[in-house]
Amino acid sequence: MRSLFSLIGLNIVPRVLGIITATLTEYVTLDIGSVEGNPRSDNGILSFKGIPYAQPPTGNLRWNSPREIVGWKGTLNSTVFGSSCYASTDFEPYYTPPSENCLFLNIWSGAEHATEKRPVKIWIHGGGFQFGGSAQSVYDGSNLAGEGVVIVTINYRLGVFGFLALPELDEEDTSSGDFGLQDQQLALKWVKRHISAFGGDPDNVTVFGQSAGGHSIGILMSSPRSEGLFAKAILESGAFWDSGAGPIKTSSQARAQGLQFKQKLGVTSLADLRAMSAAEINNAAPWNTATDPKITAFAPSIDNYVIYSAPGRVFDNGQQIKVHVLAGWTSFEQGLFLPFGLSGVSKSDYETGLHDYFGCGYLIALELYPDSTPVELGMSAGDLAGDMVIREQTFTALDSHYLTAGLPSGSVWAYYFTYTSPYLPIAIHTAELPFVFGNLGPNPVFGPTEPPPSIADFTFSKTIMSYWTNFAKFGNPNGNTLPLWPKHVGGGSALLELGDAVAADNYDFSRYRFLASFRTDGVFPERWADVNVSAIGS
Fold this sequence. Notes:
It is an enzyme of class 3 (hydrolase). Keywords: Hydrolase, Signal. Belongs to the type-B carboxylesterase/lipase family. GO terms for molecular function: cholinesterase activity. This protein is of the alpha/beta class and about 550 residues long. The chain has a single domain (about 5-535), classed as Alpha/Beta hydrolase fold, catalytic domain (Rossmann fold, 3-Layer(aba) Sandwich), CATH 3.40.50. It is about 30% helix and about 15% strand. It contains 18 helices and 15 strands. The chain has helices at about 5, 140-145, 160-165, 165-170, 180-195, 210-220, 250-265, 270-275, 280-285, 295, 310-315, 345-360, 360-370, 375-405, 435, 455-475, 510-515, 530-535; strands spanning about 10-15, 20-25, 25-30, 35, 45-50, 75, 105-110, 120-125, 150-155, 200-210, 230-235, 325-330, 410-415, 495-500, 500-505. A 10-stranded mixed β-sheet has the order 5-7-9-8-10-11-12-13-14-15, with helices on both faces. Helix 14 (about 375-405) packs across helix 17.
């Protein structure tokens, strides 16, 4: 039988000079209840899965601000992942059964004692705010936690459950539209309050995320409600949730979309909406994967609670949260976004699209994205799609942060991911994820791969993990054995190429600067949404 101390997670071990230290075990007691996680793995990592950070957003809490978890009786079984949040697509598998009761987080810690105060990294998953979840195997934190940090991954509400806006909801609680982002902020507050019990430092938290996770972090940095919740941020392939489809939705646009959805369902009240099953509602709000979800799906909007202004404008005006930032993009982002751009069209249609987007800047656009041959046209159309959906805004967030945050030199770092191998044949959107987490199993995009990862792949992964964890520890990714990562200092400064060779690169930012020149007060033209729909199709 375990001792009482073991059961409450406090194996009391006498140390030299009479010092008493609390040894961290799989049993941890919080002020809201006790949890039982998984014993230490072979590499010494404890894991705790499926811990609720909020009350279930069901019944009258469907489409409501997340409520802090009150607690639980007894010891919570935290050995398996909790339910996944409902997704708006059927092409991505659920990694655990879906449920509205999905606001769970997971923790990996290699700390020997609860008093260690290891740096904390909180992962926000991608998926266009439409799919994904923390139980995906590539996000397992065991290997990354072995680098001396505490890893946390979270779920948050997606699609219609996370981002429906309605006037009636505004009257009922906080302004509606961004419940999924509110979930993220509450999860960050939970970590701030409880992570010290797992050996983490609540004052040294880094948020990191990719795609919609990167967009989430840019948005969180734009929200006054995020102040004090994290000290550093890593944005992988995302920042502002704007694109060639125009800026983030306004409050009125989001509410119009919500009213249209309500009409589609034939209901007249919130009570009727909440009486419908979650599956019925989710099935009525699918995302067409051939379109930009910013236009055709339920996604973040200016809700006047989490977001008061477009993130690009907030950064441009220097009103974002002032934290150290590391961010970058891949060389073939467009691989997943070709349907969102002027690809697969004729030379005349492509040039018409350039005219519609850039007006008098058309000739410059044609120089940067030439179409003199069919092959060149295809490459340029792809480059433009990848730039407009991901790369430009990630660069602009970096550059604006450097110029407006007023932080010391060495607070902003940029990378460009180009690595390929037989295991990873294309540096596509999401390509860095297995390397960031050290989980070189089946690739999240390509699936099982032959040949399997090589020693070179594992070595490259170790390099990225070291950079990412150094940044979390010190605010600087560099280390004694790593190739030097240059500081981002605006203008045409070098960045780090994470490729077959890892080295500083004098990158050409001219395409991104051209696109950024169409921002007014940090925001893309509203009319681009109409151009996107007419040129690409809705």
